[in-house]
Write a structure and sequence with these properties.
The complex is a heterodimer of chains A (293) and B (311). Chain A is mostly helical and 293 residues long. Chain A contains 11 helices and no strands. Chain A has 2 domains: 45 residues, no CATH class; 161 residues, Orthogonal Bundle (Tetracycline Repressor, domain 2), CATH 1.10.357. In chain A, helix 3 crosses helix 5, helix 7 packs antiparallel against helix 11 and helix 9 crosses helix 10. The radius of gyration of chain A is 30 Å and the shape is elongated. Helices cover 50% and strands 19% of the residues of chain B. Chain B has one domain: Rossmann fold (3-Layer(aba) Sandwich), CATH 3.40.50. In chain B, strand 1 and strand 2 form a beta hairpin. Chain B is globular. In chain B, strands 5-4-3-6-7-9-8 form a 7-stranded mixed beta sheet, with helices on both faces. Chain B has 11 helices and 9 strands. The relative contact order of chain B is 0.16. Chain B has 311 residues and is an alpha/beta fold. The chains are: A mainly alpha (293), B alpha/beta (311). Chains A and B meet through helix 1 and helix 5 of A and helix 8, strand 7 and helix 11 of B.
Chain lengths: 293, 311
């Protein structure tokens, strides 16, 4: 009996902040007591068990029934709300505390996260990457529907990197701090993961289908371009970051040329060899003719 | 101070013979469920009574005993607890079983320096304001050195509170501090009031731990944090042997020499062994409704900090 009583009690108690995701759909079978619990989260001693079709409570450790938001979702909501306070407080526990307060939670909820703000930054980066992927997806759809022209590779890369870097603009002042936190040893696996998946996405949408060593070269090159452009952006003070975009343009152009240069080097090499051979022949024939005289 | 370190909580501060008498009478009374009292068995009512008496007589020697038993390390434990809490200015803390005020004083210090940093940051931003705006901000009355943070110290024992109040006066703590007499199993506060609830070395002496945890859940705001600092179980066998040796041979002797009270400190050591280990306490905290419950071992499990959130 005890086990039976506590789980629903806990699910409902736990819903003090975790709200029903499907709030709009008022289940007609759900008794009024259920509604009461939703609106009075402080009511910690329910008189009766809720009736009606209730999803079963699966266990402890934050595994609520499907209708309720999980701990992770709540954490995401807090972090998203905290982003608003980053320009003022930086990527710190204070920003997270402010974010928690806007959701109606106590500032102590920031204790759920690391005090160095790592989760906030990783959350932000992941959010930006998702937005970029959506953007590229939309563009691709337009091209497929024939409503837009397919961009040449260098233009595509430039636009993708620019779009992604522009997402940093609201937080540009505190971004150097974020970069240094991302380089902390315990964050490197996650931040590297996010970076490589983003670069991979860009190349996928750019139409890269290579299966040879080019796959690695392309990604390494683009990662280099992205990182250096990001650093340039940190100390760019030109209007609307013109300098940064110009830098980006040059780097992408260099990368494109590098691909051509590889061929050129080969043909140049041949030309040089031929030249040397010709020179050798000329010199030796000049010697011979002198010797003959 | 090692409130939990004070074994007085459980054992009689009187003669050992009285204990044996009580033991006999307990069987005769059969009043209420049987509980553990160190390695003894008593009723619930008896346990409460004894614990009260113990702390009543030890209150004045509490701090001294803590320092001598843990060689001062309890201060470090409490500092770690405070760092883990990382309270921001404006936090409302409830320190239960906080009799002599150790956690409360640390909280005030922490919040004060956090507030100073906050004000400094604000001043940096102020460098772009006009003279008008700057003068207005200075006129905003007091600077609020604590930033509206407050700590309420709640204890069941009048003597412990008395010692705490004296200490506060002696050390100069007055603002943001209040002392309330109350029982952890039935707190005299409204629902959803506090940001953080702490109980340092006190939960071992609570007779009904589940009730105390439920009360903690009740008085915390949504998003509020529960923190419990308590003696726990040592995992490594070698350390466990040394720890047992120290506990059973040295501590009661110290108790007799410093506080004139062998039995109380015998109880202390026994009650530590009887207290549920880390995982079990974690499960109990989860049962009360807390989420994201976790614990951190200090000194390989001699002490553990459990943390949970009301979400």
């Amino acid at each position: 009996v005890r086990c039976q009583l506590y789980p629903p009690q806990r699910a409902l108690q736990a819903s003090a902040v975790l709200r029903r995701v499907s709030d709009e759909q008022k289940e007609p079978l759900a008794s009024s007591s259920q509604q009461q619990f939703d609106s009075h989260p402080a009511d910690h001693r329910p008189e009766q068990e809720p009736q009606g079709p209730r999803p079963s409570y699966t266990g402890q450790g934050g595994q609520e029934s499907e209708d309720y938001e999980s701990e992770e979702q709540l954490q995401h909501r807090i972090l998203t709300a905290a982003l608003e306070f980053v320009p003022e407080h930086g990527w710190t526990a204070e920003a997270i505390a402010e974010g928690a307060k806007t959701l109606g939670l106590s500032a102590a909820a920031a204790g759920m996260f690391h005090s160095d703000g790592s989760e906030l930054i990783l959350h932000f980066v992941s959010q930006c990457n998702t937005k970029l992927t959506e953007l590229l997806e939309q563009e691709q759809k337009l091209v497929q529907l024939g409503k837009a022209e397919k961009k040449p590779t260098d233009q595509f890369l430039r636009d993708a990197v620019e779009a992604r870097l522009r997402m940093l603009i609201p937080y540009i002042e505190k971004w150097p701090q974020a970069l240094s936190v991302l380089l902390l040893p315990h964050n490197i696996p996650s931040s590297l993961n996010l970076l490589t998946s983003m670069i991979d996405d860009i190349w996928q949408y750019a139409g890269d289908q290579s299966t040879d060593f080019n796959w690695y070269t392309r990604r390494a090159v683009l990662t280099g371009i992205y990182n250096t452009t990001e650093l340039v952006m940190m100390q760019d003070s030109s209007p609307d970051f013109e300098e940064t975009w110009r830098f980006l343009e040059n780097r992408v152009a260099d990368a494109m040329n590098m691909g051509n240069a590889a061929h050129q080097v080969q043909s140049t090499g041949e030309a040089v060899v031929q030249g040397l051979m010709g020179a050798a022949v000329t010199v030796s024939s000049a010697e011979t003719s002198r010797a003959v005289r | 101070l090692g409130r939990g370190l004070c074994p007085c909580r459980a054992l009689l501060a009187r003669r050992g013979g009285a204990l044996r008498e009580l033991h006999g009478s307990v069987r005769g009374l059969a009043a209420g469920p049987e509980m553990h009292f160190g390695f003894q068995t008593v009723t619930e009512a008896e346990r409460r009574e004894k614990i009260y008496q113990v702390f009543e007589s030890v209150a004045t020697k509490y701090d001294v005993m803590n320092d001598s038993m843990t060689l001062g390390i309890h201060r470090v434990w409490k500092d770690i607890l405070m760092h883990k809490m990382n309270p921001s200015p404006g936090t409302l803390l409830l320190d239960v079983a906080g009799g002599t005020g150790d956690i409360a004083f640390r909280f005030i210090n922490y919040v004060r320096s956090a507030r100073e940093r906050q004000l400094q940051q604000k001043l940096k931003h102020h460098q772009n304001l006009s003279w008008q705006e700057i003068s207005e901000s200075y006129q905003e009355g007091k600077f609020k050195p604590l930033g509206d943070s407050q700590v309420v110290v709640c204890d069941i024992n009048k003597e412990m509170l008395k010692v705490g109040k004296q200490k506060a006066q002696h050390l100069g703590y007055s603002e943001g501090l209040s002392w309330v007499l109350g029982n952890a199993e039935e707190l005299p506060f409204d629902d959803d009031k506090f940001d953080v609830y702490t109980i340092a070395f006190g939960i071992r002496n609570v007779t009904r731990i589940d009730l105390a945890l439920q009360e903690a859940y009740r008085v915390l705001k949504p998003g509020g944090r529960f923190l419990c600092l308590e003696f726990s179980h040592v995992s490594s066998p070698l350390l466990s042997r040394l720890y047992d040796l120290y506990s059973f041979q040295v501590i009661p002797v110290l108790g007799e020499v410093i506080a004139g009270d062998w039995k109380s400190y015998q109880y202390l050591v026994e009650s530590i062994r009887r207290f549920p280990p880390q995982e079990e306490l974690k499960a109990m905290i989860e049962d009360a409704g807390f989420l994201k419950v976790d614990y951190q071992n200090l000194n390989s499990g001699i002490v553990a900090i459990h943390s949970g959130f009301k979400l």
